[in-house]
Batch of 2 targets.
Target 1
Amino acid sequence: GNSVTQMEGPVTLSEEAFLTINCTYTATGYPSLFWYVQYPGEGLQLLLKATKADDKGSNKGFEATYRKETTSFHLEKGSVQVSDSAVYFCALSALSGFQKLVFGTGTRLLVSP
Amino acid sequence: DVKVTQSSRYLVKRTGEKVFLECVQDMDHENMFWYRQDPGLGLRLIYFSYDVKMKEKGDIPEGYSVSREKKERFSLILESASTNQTSMYLCASRSGHLNTEAFFGQGTRLTVV
């Protein structure tokens, strides 16, 4: 079946450090890939997405590239801020999945001043 | 501004009670979902609906049922609440197109005592 694997957290960084959160997936066909962010006490909101191989999604300084050869969609940011502290979820949507989004377990990011 | 609204942010219920969690979306989306979120387990799909009166079981449907009498409203029902159903519940909606994102409500934190 379809699945998403994320690196375990928490990831602890100092402000202005470089961020990478790894995400790999298993799916039939060509899924769409998403990163969602959840700030404390809130629901999930879309951070970025990519819908085909080699697409790069970007938003708020975050980027992720859809790599079909390595079945990966790693999230990166060049310089994190304290306000980026949140839980980040990688997700996929596949044709075989009835419009469902399949999520990873989430990675908590803690950024200190 | 698109919106998914869950009826309660916090609920405390007693073991054995029947519990209703309500979700309303204003985007005319065909698909609606109920997830539960637990630490270390990420988001797990309970039920989803792809049309009015249509429903499909997700990964963890036991102890839950759902109702979708109108397109904009999707209800999650705990027939007899138990302490292991204490969790954060997230509702989401999504259009019928593969490449679109899901929109989430703010979540309901349910405590069963």
Target 2
Amino acid sequence: AQSVSQHNHHVILSEAASLELGCNYSYGGTVNLFWYVQYPGQHLQLLLKYFSGDPLVKGIKGFEAEFIKSKFSFNLRKPSVQWSDTAEYFCAVKAGTASKLTFGTGTRLQVTL
Amino acid sequence: NAGVTQTPKFQVLKTGQSMTLQCAQDMNHEYMSWYRQDPGMGLRLIHYSVGAGITDQGEVPNGYNVSRSTTEDFPLRLLSAAPSQTSVYFCASRGIGVATNEKLLFGSGTQLSVL
């Protein structure tokens, strides 16, 4: 069965610092990978997704993620975070032809001024 | 086009009571699902459906029932509420197939407390 690990539970950064959030999945076949963001008091929104092709995918608000198949990873990055990026970030995987989407436990990002 | 609509937004139950969380979407999405969100545990899939008349269990199905009689609606039933079911519940839906980009759209959530 597919599973997702997010090892960073709580990250605190100053504005303008660079961000990298880790995501590893376990599934040996073809996967679709996603990052979702949940701003305080809101529901989840899609940040970016990888289906196939270029392993470096760009999403909204300057976020990007790189799919490294050999490492089963899909880390999220942003060169310079803003206070408004304070949110919880969830990595998710859909394995092969399965319908369901499995989420990681989330990483809470706190950006200080 | 309302997207994914969940009701109620808040609910307090006593142990043993039953209730149904409603979820409706107007995008003709085949896939619908229910997640619960708990601190430190992320989102865990309760049940999901790939079309009317078809449902399947997720990671944490015990204590919950679902049905999918129409494409639009996917209610989640708690038959006998327990304090362990205190959580925030999210309904989510998407189309199936490459053309839809398989983007999962979430409702605004239901905060449930079981006393």
